[in-house]
Design brief:
Elements (H helix, E strand, L loop, with lengths): L10 H12 L3 H20 L4 E3 L3 E8 L14 E8 L1 H11 L6 H9 E4 L5 E3 L4
Antiparallel strand pairs: 1-2, 2-3, 4-5
Helix pairs in contact: 1-2
Length: 128
C-alpha cells in the first residue's frame, strides 16, 4: 500500500483503487477526483449544502472566534467543512465492520420458529 499507516488510504492509493474498480485510466480518475472536490469545496464555500443521495451531505459550519490565552492575536470567526453520512452508508459500515458471528442464543431462537401465521409473521413453537 502507499501509506505508512494501514488504517489510512492516501489520495494516490484512493485514485488507484477507483481506477482499478472502474477500469478507467488513472489519469481520467485523477481529473474527475480533482473536479469533484473542486466543485464540492466551491459549492460549500459559497454557502450551499451538497447532498449526495444515498451517501451523505457536505455543509459549512460556522465557528465563533475566541481570545487566545497567550499571544497577541485572537482567533477570528471561521468555518469548517462538515460531513453527515446517510443512514444507508452508516448501515453499510455497520455490516462491513461487524464480522462477529451471531451469538448461540440467536440460533436457538431461529430453531424455535416453526411456521408463519396468516399475516406472514413467524410463530414460536410452544415450549413444553
Amino acid at each position: 500500500m502507499g501509506t505508512t499507516d494501514d488504517s489510512r488510504i492516501s489520495k494516490r492509493e484512493f485514485i488507484s483503487r477507483v481506477a482499478t474498480r472502474s477500469e478507467l485510466p488513472i489519469k481520467v480518475v485523477r481529473e474527475v477526483y480533482e473536479a469533484l472536490f473542486g466543485e464540492l469545496t466551491g459549492a460549500v464555500g459559497g454557502g450551499h449544502t451538497v447532498v449526495l443521495t444515498g451517501f451523505g451531505r457536505f455543509y459549512r459550519q460556522a465557528h465563533k472566534g475566541h481570545k487566545v490565552r497567550f499571544g497577541k492575536n485572537d482567533v477570528d470567526d471561521y468555518s469548517v467543512l462538515k460531513f453527515s453520512a446517510s443512514r444507508s452508508v452508516n448501515r453499510q459500515l455497520d455490516v462491513a465492520t461487524n464480522t462477529d458471528p451471531p451469538p448461540p442464543e440467536m440460533y436457538a431462537m431461529i430453531d424455535r420458529c416453526d411456521s408463519l401465521d396468516s399475516s406472514g409473521r413467524r410463530t414460536l413453537e410452544s415450549v413444553s
